[in-house]
Every structure is written in C-alpha cells, then in structure tokens.
Amino acid sequence: MTKGIFDGLKVCDFMWAAAGPITTKQLSDNGATVVKVESSKHPDSIRLGGPFIDNKPGINRSGFFADFHSSKLGMAVDMSHADRLEIIRPLVEWADVVTDSFRPGTMEKWGLGYEDLKQINPRIIVLSSSLHGSTGPWAKHPGYGAQGAALAGIQHMTGWPDRPPATPKGAYSDSVSPRYALSALMAALIHREKTGEGQFVELAQIEATVQLVAPQLLDLQVTGREAQRNGNRKDGAIQHGVYPCAGEERWIVIECETESHWCTLCDLLEDAAGLDAARAAGQDALDAAIAKLTAPQDAFELWDRLRGAGIPAAVAYKGSDLLDDPILEARGHFWPLHHEEMGTLKYNGPAYRFEKTPTVLRTASPRLGEHTEHVMTEILGFSTAEVDRFRTRGLLG
Amino acid sequence: MSEGKTALAGVRVIEISSLSGAVCGRALADLGAQVIKLEPEGGEPARRDFPLIPVEGGEESAAWIVYNLGKASVTVDLSSDDGRAAFEALAKTADIVVTDFQRMDIDEMDRLAAIARAVNPALVWCEILPFGRGHAYDRVPATDTTLQALGGHLYQNGDVDRPPVRIGVPVGLIQAGAEASNAALMAYYHALRTGEGQRVDVSVQECVTWTLLNTTMAWQILQLNELRGGAIRKERANQFFTRLVWPCRDGYVVFGPVGGGGGSARVKSYDALLKWMAEDGITADILTSRDWNGDGQFFISQDDYDTVTEVIRKFIETKTLEELTTRAVAERILMAPINGLGDILVNPQHDARDYFQVLHDPARGLDVKLPTNWVRMSETPIHAPRPAPAPGAQTAKYWQDIRKTETAT
User: Fold this and answer.
1) Mean pLDDT in residue range B196-208
2) According to DSSP H, which parts of A157-282 are helical?
3) Is B321 within 8 Å of chain A by CB?
C-alpha cells in the first residue's frame, strides 16, 4: 500500500477545539503518528459540543469532535499533576512536531514553552495557534471562531445592507486559519529537512482570517470606500441572486455576467420581455421578477437546465444534500468510520487529492484516553508495571 | 519579517493563475519561494477584477495587488509554439506549478502539465478546480457564489425571512488558494524526500464544506438540517435558537452568554458578565435560576432562553462598543465587537503585533499598510510586503535564465 506523505512523522498534539485539530488532522490522515494529549479533568472542549449520538451528551459521543480527529491516537495525561513531565518529556523527545492551541501562557505554565521544548529536543518544530496570538494586549482574551469572524470583518461583509450583520455559519476563523497554519508548518518542515534546524511557528487565527478582506482594506485606504455587506449583489454582474424554488426552504443561485448568459436565461425562464423590462427597472425589480419565475420550479431540475445551458447556477445545499451530493460522492469526500460508542459515521475527508500518495482516514476519532496504554508502552517504551505505577499516582486518565 | 533566510529559499514556483492560484502563490512567496507568474501580453485578466483602485497611470484590481505581492511576472503566449517551449524550459527549473480553473480550463491544464511533467519528474503540479478532478463533474461551470452554495455554506447564512445570503467576498476561492498552498507544500515535501513529483488537485466545493464544521454530522446524528438565522440561530446543533449578534449603543457585538457548549471558558465568561451586571444593579433571579452553562445546557427551553437573554440584551444595549470591548478583554468575557473594515485598521492588538506592514510601491504611487505579517517563524521569518510586479517586468531576466539552462543541457 502506498504510504502517506507523513509516514514516519511524529506529532505530540496539544491542540483543542476546532482550528487546531483541523490542522493536525491533515497530518494524521496523511500518515503521521499524531498523539493527542488531553485528560478527563480537562477534555477537549468540543467533546462537550453537539451533535451527540442519540442526542445524549457524553465525553465520547460528539460528532463535532469526531470529525476533526480521524486517524489520531488519544492519550489521557493529567497535565495539572506536578510530575507530568515524567511522561511528556519522553513524548517530546520522541516527537518531530509539538502543536498547541491553548490560551497563550498555558504551555509555559506547564514547563513546555518553546525554550523548554527546545532544551528537550533541539530539532523540534513547535506550532502554536491561538485566536489573537501570543503577544499584545488581547493575547489572553478568550474566544471562539465566532468572535474571530467578527473581529476579522467576515460578519461585516455578510448579510443585508438594511439589517444587522448575519453571522456566517460556523466558527469561521477556525476554518480559515488551519490552511495558513499548515502552510507555515510545512515550510518549517521543509526548512528542517534541508538544514536540520527546528523552530517556533506562531499564528493568530484572526490574522489568518483577515487575509480574506485584504483587498477591501487596501481599497478603503486608497479610495476611502468602506466595503459593505450587500445581500447577494455583486459588482459588475448583470444579475446575481438567490431565488426561491418549490418545496420547503429550496433556493437556487443564478448569476449572469455576460449578455450571452442573460439572453440564455431569458429564454430558459420563458419570459424574455418581462425580464428585459425588469432589468431596465433596476436590480430589485429584476430579482423580484426572477423569483416569481423560479418559485414554482423544482430546484434540482432548474439547476440541471441552467447548467446544461452553461449558466452559473447552484442549488443552495442543505446539510442533508451534501451527504446525497453525487459530486462529493464521485469525489469520495466522505469516509465511513466505525467508532465503538458512536457506530459508523461519515467523516469529512480533505479538499485536496494527491495523485501518488493518497490521503487515508485510517480510524475514527479516539475515545478519551483510548490509546494511553499503547502510547506509553509501544511508543514511549514504558513497561506495563511502570504504566500501572503512573496510574496509581494519578498521572494517567 | 524577513531580511535574511526564509523557509522556502531556493524553491521555484510557476504560477498561471486568476484569484485562487494567486492566493496560493502569495503564501508561498511570503514564505520565501521565488514565484514567477506567467501572464499574457498586457497582464492576466484578474488585474482588472473588482474592486478597482486608482494607481499611477490608471486603475488596477485591489485584490490582484494584495494577492500578488513579492512575485515576478513573465509575459508569454502559452498558446504559441515558442511560448510552450519557453514554458517547458522554465518548468525544468521549477519545483511547483500552480494554476486555477478561472485562468484556464482542464484541457489546457492537461496540455501544460504533460509538457512540464515530462521534463521534470519531481515537479509538483497543483491545480485548483471547482469540484476537483477525476469524475463526471469536473467540467461543470462554477463561480465563487455557486460554490458557496454547493459547499453547503450559503444555505446557512442570512435572515430567515429572506433568501440565504453569501459572504460578500469570494471566500471559497480565497480559501481554496490557501488550501492549495499547503497541499502543494505537502507534495513538495514528499518530492524533496523521495524525488517523486505528482499532481495535487484542490476542490473549492470541499474547501467550502470544511467551513461548516459540524453540519454534516448534525444531519447524520440528529437528522437536523441547520437553518440560517441571521443574528439569531440554532448553533452547534442546538434544539433552540440562540442570539449571536447583540446590538449595543453604537454597533454590534458577537456574544454567546449561555447555552450550547463552550466549556469552562463560557462558565467563567458568564460569571464575569453577572459580576458586571450586578455592579450596575441588575440581579434578576432568572440570571441564576439554573446553571445555564452546566448540565442540561443543550436542552434549555426556548422560553427560558428568551427570558434570560432579554435581561442580558437590555444590559448590553446600554453599553458602547468601547465599554464592552474593554471590559470583555479585562475580564475574559467571550464577546467581541463586530468590526467594520476601518476598525480592523486601528485595532490595538494588530498594532502591538506589527501585523500591518507598510507597502511602498512607487510605481503605483501606493504607500499603504497591509495585513501581511500573518505568521511568526522564529528562524525563517516571512517576507515584508514587496510590490506586485508590472506585466512582464521580469521577462528579460528569466529568458536569460532559460537560455542558460538550455545551453547547459
């Protein structure tokens, strides 16, 4: 079997919530051995976030947690125990990469700041990702991706001009920042491969997310225009909107940026005269006229016809549509993985495909501490008797 | 910011792009790669994308400028025999080629990939496509908005009494570009260790699906299709609507005081809020009538949620953004202002971290600050902003390189 790109790469993973684990999932799904460290006293907080299997909260029952932890090993170590380094030190010696996404200062408090880690393992690469970054007056201000999206201007750019900002779904900075964090981590790995030198990589999730509005920040400084949310309108388009279709909450995106697309759309909706008149009357009238014509139609059939005519269009997929989508199916996007408490669920695979070193989601997410014994004996070389003594002293679990 | 060694020093990237490929190339250039754009005579079409800003001698796309900092530009007609020969010579010297579907179609990608990979087996060919490659849908036309829709994100945004609404910047394409930068580097890491090059393709649709976080699990586990809710929505697979956007005296903040996960940080945040409200004399029983962030936090009734948050809403309405932000930072309340773009430019946290760097671009007459310091690397800092190239600015220089390569071989 073809080995993954990171076969042999060893990662000691203190990342939690979403932005961090999404980053290290790219390593584990591509073959790295990723040991996630948490504890029953302080489990990863998204183990406490839904959806829970059977709608019953439980430490090993969250689908939210599961999706970001395929192919990882789970280890439970009480990091508040005074003797934690008896276990963590050999783990750092073993690792190529240490990652964390705690509130800045946490790793230092445990004796695991970059300088400490470098003492233990001079070649170590450390990736630390936090919402605001590890320096500056807001460094320790807690927050999740919703706050990140608000601070980064994403909410400002989402919604209707006459309404409050519409919160985009998801903890948006948690999905932007892993892409940039991983690029920087890859650059550090490449540098180490060439020179042998490790380093500290520090990323603020908000700073990564602001990359999405960098053009608008330039525009504002040069012209004084502050870009605003504007519903579904788009500069330069003849027409660009989201329209109702038959059924409950069925919507279709249609956009025309050329006269040729416009003519085709008018023919396809079978009201060229009405649509031309509405276009002349302005965007509001045009959107209303199109909506009237799409409202009785089946969204998927209309999408087929528009697609066939070469007009950019799409059904606004619901969550259930994604799991039924023939495109994602053909792409092999979802990976059914079996978990002892949660049964078989379809996990999201990556957005990229390697031609020669395919990504493989090997296992479902670990139960809390599922691989403690394995990591202690097989990876760190402790004897079973030693592991028992660590347990008795309260270090494991 | 780098004056000396960079992580990707010595890595050569050829970029044939529109927006998403440029975002990829920009990340690689920041990290130290030498990125050479191949453009048609007069420059690539993306130089004229919205928003346009006035520059010395005319107008140019703000998006094009920011996503093409620090690159070189070579003009070449890739449809001509001479152009393809030049491309072949350059591809021999490259480590990565990146391209995207807005710049060329999949057939043209295949033609160029065949040329490049034949002469350079270690080459990484990275392409950004709407739905990825290798299936019956890889030629379906697409735009950022149709991909926001087909990734499942558009459906979830906006007010429930109006149609779903997109994020008003091309987030799918930009995120796909960022994703391509790390995927290309993963493949390059493999090539570096083994000598084996390969193609890597990135799907914009899948990038958008990754922004949902828990939507596909919510459907599988609860048969729940999450629905848009504007300022108020069912978040984190909750069974009740929670308010995320809260009006204050002079703007809006985002805040999740109770309900729906968040762990110990949310418990502490709520305690800090109650302390502040008590200082203002607000001590309604409902605020402490149950452990709002403890057991049962996912099963709060809508009535109870609405009652407690009405008290909180009235309190927040009496405060300014400045008051709320200052207190939130000092007391670790899980709250943040909803920044306009101007607010981002003056944010004290960004100032303290030197996040914005000055771009001095005399050819365009620009002296502006840009959000370029996006990662801190202790041994190989990223580049400070360097101007984006004029069309063909480095054509002569690289043609000399190519001729040298040809002579040597």
Assistant:
1) 98
2) 172-195, 205-209, 214-223, 259-268, 272-281
3) no
User: Band of the pLDDT at B156, cuts 50, 70, 90?
Assistant: very high
> Strand B366-370 and strand B357-361: pairing?
antiparallel
Phi, psi for residue B378 in degrees, rounded to 5: -65, -35
**Overall number of domains in chain B:** 2
Query: Which pLDDT tens digit goes with each residue over A140-192?
Result: 988 888 899 999 999 999 999 999 998 898 889 999 999 999 999 999 999 99
ipTM of the complex model: 0.98
Nearest CB to A157; choose among B143, B147, B169: B169
Regarding predicted confidence, which is higher, B405 or B192? B192
Residue contact A218–B370, C-beta within 8 A? yes
**pLDDT higher at B227 or B17:** B17
B112 and B251 belong to one structural domain: no
Residues B16 and B128 in one domain: yes
Burial of B295 by CB count in 10 Å (0-12 exposed, 13-18 middle, 19+ buried)?
exposed
| Domain range for B124 | 12-210+353-408
Which residues of B, range 56-75, sit inside 8 Å of A by Cβ? 61-63, 65-67
Q: Which of B132, B244, B377 sits opposite A167 (nearest CB)?
A: B244
Q: Which two tokens stand for residue B15?
A: 């970029």
The catalytic site residues of A sit at: 174
Question: Cβ of B207 and A351 within 8 Å?
Answer: yes
Which residues of A fall within a CB distance of 8 Å from B224? 51, 319
Q: Of A333, A374, A328, nearest to A29 (Cα)?
A: A333
Q: Domain range holding A147?
A: 10-211+332-392
List, as ranges, residues 111-140 from B with C-beta within 8 Å of A.
131-137, 140
Instruction: Check whether residue B335 and residue B378 sit in a common domain.
Output: no
- Collapse the DSSP code of A70 into the 3-class scheme (helix H, G, I; strand E, B; otherwise coil) and give the result: coil
Strands (E) across A29-68 are located at 33-38
Interval B100-128: pLDDT, tens: 999 999 999 999 999 999 999 999 999 99
How does DSSP assign B75-97, residue by residue? E--TTSHHHHHHHHHHHHT-SEE
Structural tokens at position B328: 């939130």
A133 φ/ψ angles, rounded to the nearest 5 degrees: 95, 170
- Please tell me whether residues B131 and B169 are part of one structural domain: yes
Question: Which of B287, B317, B339 is where one domain is finished?
Answer: B339
- B232 shares its domain with B190: no
Looking at the fold, whether A310 and A354 belong to one and the same domain comes out as: no
A383 lies in some domain: yes
Q: Are residues A168 and A278 in the same domain?
A: no
Between chain A and chain B, the number of residue pairs with CB atoms below 8 A apart is: 525
Q: Which residue of A has its CA nearest to B6?
A: A191
* C-alpha span between A185 and B255 (Å, rounded): 31
Query: Mind listing the pLDDT tens digit of every residue in chain A (397 residues)?
Result: 567 999 999 999 999 999 999 999 999 999 999 999 999 999 998 998 889 999 998 999 999 999 999 999 999 999 999 999 999 999 999 999 999 999 999 999 999 999 999 999 999 999 999 999 999 999 998 888 889 999 999 999 999 999 999 889 888 999 999 999 999 999 999 999 999 999 999 999 999 999 999 999 999 999 999 999 999 999 889 999 999 999 999 999 999 999 999 999 999 999 999 999 999 999 999 999 999 999 999 999 999 999 999 999 999 999 999 999 999 999 999 999 999 999 999 999 999 999 999 999 999 999 999 999 999 999 999 999 999 999 999 999 9
Give the minimum alpha-carbon distance from A113 to chain B in angstroms, rounded to a whole number: 13
Q: Please say which residue of B314, B339, B364 terminates a domain.
A: B339
Query: Measured between alpha carbons, how far is B296 from A309 in angstroms, rounded to an integer?
Result: 52
Residue A318 shares a structural domain with residue A337: no
